[in-house]
């Protein structure tokens, strides 16, 4: 047990030394392992972190998240070196959307605009009209002139937005986030029986029936705001388990309850998010490997829908 603690401390010391030496910044998503969140320069959602990177004078960005997040950081910070601790840390939902499929939908619906969730790969961003996050999607879609929306890739976030913007027609790509999709209403209701005073907060990537029974639906950062400010001591959280670490640090006096599903990784657990480790962060900093490299035309085309979103919000 002592050796593990010493090894972890040595890794952290090495990471701190390397990022100072190389003028590097470490960004970590809320769903990362707790020990990574604890040493990160910034912890947040994917867009917030990419924008944070723009504000720093760092030469190197180490993005501890899944690949599309590191790509977004590169798109918004093309002159910086962006390193991804584990190239195998991808996003199944992002991978469900293809350029060919989206172009086919555009041909079938020439009067529609393509609204892509930020959880898309760089190539799909290049053929999108605007990018949205789960936090700002409703506002952005309402601001668009178009009456018909092709929404990519998450059908459940898309259907949630469609319910908030009934005046527009939605064509939904049939993608989904496996961990969020597997959270059922029964799991939440069973916890509600144990904690009758608890509030339920879920991410809109959850399936529609699960979203319907929640007291609050919002992005990761919005769930944090709700969970820390609501008047209930017990809060049932319907999103990835990594958020528990951050919530408990913010407000240790509250009880944050995450559903357990023995049939799916125990909790809402993104296996890809957890593929990043302290060892891999130290390694990419040491050797400057796993750099995110995107062609200039991809960066230029993918940045336009991101800029359009930023103009609106």
Task: Give a quick precis of the structure.
With 313 residues, this protein is an alpha/beta fold. It has helices at 2-21, 34-39, 46-55, 67-76, 92-96, 99-108, 122-125, 137-143, 155-164, 178-181, 185-194, 208-212, 220-229, 243-250, 278-287, 296-312, and strands at residues 24-29, 42-44, 60-64, 81-83, 113-117, 130-132, 148-152, 169-172, 199-202, 216-217, 234-238, 255-257, 260-261, 266-267.
Structural class of the helix and strand makeup?
A: alpha/beta
Q: On the 0-100 scale, what is the average pLDDT?
A: 93
Q: What's the helical proportion of residues?
A: 40-55%
H/E series, N to C? HEHEHEHEHHEHEHEHEHHEHEHEHEEEHH
CATH level-1 class of the largest domain: Alpha Beta
Unreliable runs: 1-5, 262-266
Give the number of domains: 3
Strand order of the largest sheet: 2-1-3-4
Oligomer: single chain
What name goes with the CATH superfamily of the largest domain?
NadA-like
Biggest beta sheet summary: 4 strands, parallel
Q: Total number of helical segments?
A: 16
- Strand content bin: 15-25%
Q: What's the architecture of the largest domain, going by CATH?
A: 3-Layer(aba) Sandwich
Rough outline: globular
Radius of gyration over C-alpha positions, nearest whole angstrom? 20 Å
What is the terminal-to-terminal distance? 49 Å
* Strand elements, count: 14
CATH topology of the largest domain: Rossmann fold
């Amino acid at each position: 047990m002592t050796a593990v603690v010493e090894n972890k401390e040595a890794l952290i010391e090495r990471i701190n030394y390397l990022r100072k030496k190389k003028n590097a910044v470490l960004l970590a998503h809320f769903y990362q392992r707790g020990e990574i969140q604890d040493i990160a320069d910034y912890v947040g959602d994917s867009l917030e972190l990419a924008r944070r990177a723009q504000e720093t004078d760092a030469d190197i960005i180490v993005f501890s998240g899944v690949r599309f997040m590191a790509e977004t950081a590169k798109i918004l910070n093309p002159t910086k070196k962006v390193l991804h601790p584990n190239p195998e840390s991808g996003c199944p939902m992002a991978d469900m959307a293809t350029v060919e499929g989206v172009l086919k939908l555009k041909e079938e619906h020439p009067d529609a605009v393509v609204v892509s969730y930020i959880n898309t790969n760089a190539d799909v961003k290049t053929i999108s009209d605007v990018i949205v996050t789960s936090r700002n999607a409703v506002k952005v879609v309402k601001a668009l002139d178009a009456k018909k929306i092709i929404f990519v890739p998450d059908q459940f976030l898309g259907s949630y937005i469609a319910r908030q913007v009934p005046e527009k027609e939605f064509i939904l790509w049939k993608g989904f986030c496996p961990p969020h999709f597997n959270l059922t209403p029964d799991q939440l209701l069973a916890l509600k029986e144990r904690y009758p005073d608890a509030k339920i907060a879920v991410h809109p990537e959850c399936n529609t029936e699960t979203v319907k029974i929640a007291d609050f639906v919002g992005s990761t950062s919005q769930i944090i705001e709700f969970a820390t400010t609501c008047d209930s001591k017990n809060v049932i959280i319907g999103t990835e388990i990594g958020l528990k670490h951050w919530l408990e640090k913010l407000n240790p006096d509250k009880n944050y309850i995450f559903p357990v599903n023995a049939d799916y990784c125990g909790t809402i657990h993104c296996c890809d998010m957890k593929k990043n480790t302290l060892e891999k962060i130290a390694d990419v900093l040491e050797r400057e490997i796993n750099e995110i490299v995107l062609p200039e035309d991809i960066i230029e085309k993918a940045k336009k829908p991101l800029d359009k979103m930023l103009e609106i919000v």
